[in-house]
Design a protein that fits this description.
This protein is an alpha/beta fold. It folds into two domains: 115 residues, Rossmann fold (3-Layer(aba) Sandwich), CATH 3.40.50; 115 residues, Rossmann fold, CATH 3.40.50. Helices cover 51% and strands 16% of the residues. Strand 7, helix 12 and strand 8 form a beta-alpha-beta unit.
Amino acid sequence: MKVSLFITCVCDMFHSNVGKDTVEILERAGCEVDFPESQTCCGQPAFNSGYLQQSKKAMKQMIQAFEHAEYVVGPSGSCVGMLKEYPKIFAGDPVWEERATELANKAYELTQFLVDILNVVDVGSKFVGKVTYHPSCHMTRVLGVKEAPIQLLKQIKGIELIELPMKEDCCGFGGTFAIKNADISTEMVKEKSRHVSETGAHYLVGGDMACLMNIGGMMSREGKNVQVIHIAEILNTQ
């Protein structure tokens, strides 16, 4: 099975190891992975800020970059969720609607692809420690991926998985929301940090690196010793 890696901006610029782990997990599962170098931002920051026409330029570039792909897999529920929105954004466009739909139909978040397409729930990873999982907003509400990450985490040998209180609550990041509404965002992430502490977990795991960076940044400023890990990193621990 051929898979094209959608790296996402945050992972590409700040956490490239997440991309490496994603590739290694997919290859162990029997996939042949390529990396289209012409890919760029999915357009979500500009789109969510109201810059529709500007965001379409990035979207068109993404459509072209992955036109050859059999499957497109990314380590971000938020960014893959944005690809799923392309058909609505290009609805009625005689040139781009069909091409946008083709990309949306073959795009998957990593855990979603492993569980729903490859039927893999045990990737053979081992990790000893207390872990809690943050289900990011776009991952669950836009993309609809809720069970796949938990199924994969539960199969990790040595893990102690603790449910996060008020797990559905937003961490306050929301892309440009954290910039435009800094005071509200800060209170939201403080609350999330408090709930993570309540679990007694030593590790916070999630499927969206931007959310994890936001929560991890607050916990670091509060002096809390909780390590933030993307789910690809923990699934690739042998």
